[in-house]
Design a protein that fits this description.
globular, mainly alpha, about 375 residues, 2 domains
Length: about 375
């Protein structure tokens, strides 16, 4: 959530002012999504958020069982939570529009679409979790692999694609090219079932409704980690499992990518992306487990706890009041309050001020125990 909120720092704009400084170029790269295949730090925000949904589930189920709630009651709440997340995602996509924008590629909608099934899997065994993971990833891969590639007479303009786009893959991996895949074809049918001002063709970034299926696999990886953390395993055993899972999923994802079997593409959430990003999530979980749970070094994390305890609020703040906050700061301190820092650093300083206001809002909510929960 912090990385998402920190988009207001405009690091890419600063990097354009200093093309010769590698540090700014690196920071800008890691605050942007890669064009298609590959990975930056920014690309890991959504899988981390989805992963943590799975991590939290065993603790949530145990808490509700301790309160005497039945499985039926908990499932009803899971469905209600799912519906709210989906509609909240649609709402965020509809802001500043004249009509509801019925699309479901938003992070919240993607989590909501798969959450009921994740909840049901939360009561199953480790073996069942692995089987479900294999079925989801294998079945999704097969659906894409069987979808026909564009022929010599294919009309690329009709789907707003380009035959010579430099990020298109060659050979078998072309089944996962932007706008030329089964997920895009599904959206051209499904999303046009909803009322909209004009015919839906493609999402400009390549994002898809069907990505909720492999996103469920990412949440399922988090469920594995959550069960290990909640279990009676010794600390060293928990850490070993997290590190082993990280290494295995890293290797599998990279192998599929290098062999051309399935490219690592976050925007369409390929099965290899689930594995590769899952490896990063397990590694981050292991590192934080060592620092926070094992070494008991917790004070440094307080600013992040303030954000994490209100993750839904942080998500909404970052999407809804960014411009309002920046304009309010200029009204209070003057339109030229950041002019002192020049054209190069002015946007960065403005972003730091906006980010501070975001955090202070969340801190105010934290101190008064105001938490947005679904």
């Amino acid at each position: 959530m912090f990385l998402m909120m920190a988009e207001v720092l405009h690091l890419a704009q600063v990097a354009r002012s200093f093309p010769e400084i590698s540090l700014w170029q690196s920071l800008a790269f890691h605050q942007s999504h890669v064009p298609w295949s590959g990975c930056s730090l920014h690309d890991l925000i959504q899988p981390s958020f989805s992963f943590l949904v799975g991590v939290a589930l065993p603790f949530s189920i145990a808490s509700r069982l301790a309160k005497g709630q039945s499985t039926r009651m908990m499932f009803g709440h899971a469905v209600w939570r799912s519906l709210l997340l989906i509609l909240l995602g649609v709402f965020l996509r509809s802001v500043h529009r004249d009509q509801i924008n019925w699309t479901f590629e938003d992070t919240l909608s993607q989590i909501g679409l798969g959450y009921p099934l994740l909840f049901l899997l939360g009561f199953r065994s480790f073996r069942t979790h692995l089987i479900a993971l294999g079925v989801i990833l294998g079945g999704y891969w097969l659906a894409w692999a069987l979808y026909p590639l564009p022929g010599p007479d294919f009309d690329y303009v009709a789907v707003r694609a380009s035959a010579d786009w430099p990020h298109h893959a060659e050979g078998f991996a072309a089944h996962w090219n932007k706008h030329l895949n089964v997920g895009s074809a599904f959206d051209q049918w499904f999303l046009n079932l909803f009322p909209r001002p004009s015919t839906y063709v493609v999402n400009g970034g390549g994002y898809l409704t069907l990505s909720f299926i492999p996103t469920l696999a990412t949440m399922l990886l988090g469920l594995l980690a959550g069960n290990w953390l909640k279990s009676g395993l010794l600390p060293k055993q928990r850490l070993l499992r997290l590190l082993l899972a990280s290494a295995i999923f890293f290797a599998l994802g990279e192998l599929l990518h290098q062999l051309g079997i399935c490219p690592i593409v976050k925007r369409i959430w390929t099965p290899s992306w689930v594995l590769f990003s899952g490896g990063w999530c397990f590694l981050c979980m292991a590192v934080l487990y060592i620092i926070v749970d094992w070494a008991k070094l917790k004070k440094w994390a307080f600013p992040l706890i303030v954000i994490g305890m209100n993750s839904i609020a942080a998500y909404l703040i970052a999407h809804l009041i960014r411009d309002f906050t920046a304009n309010s700061i200029k009204i209070l301190f003057g339109q030229d309050c950041f002019a002192f820092y020049g054209e190069n650093y002015g946007p960065l300083c403005e972003g730091l001020a906006v980010l501070l206001v975001f955090w202070l809002i969340l801190f105010w909510m934290y101190r008064r125990k105001i938490f947005l929960r679904i």
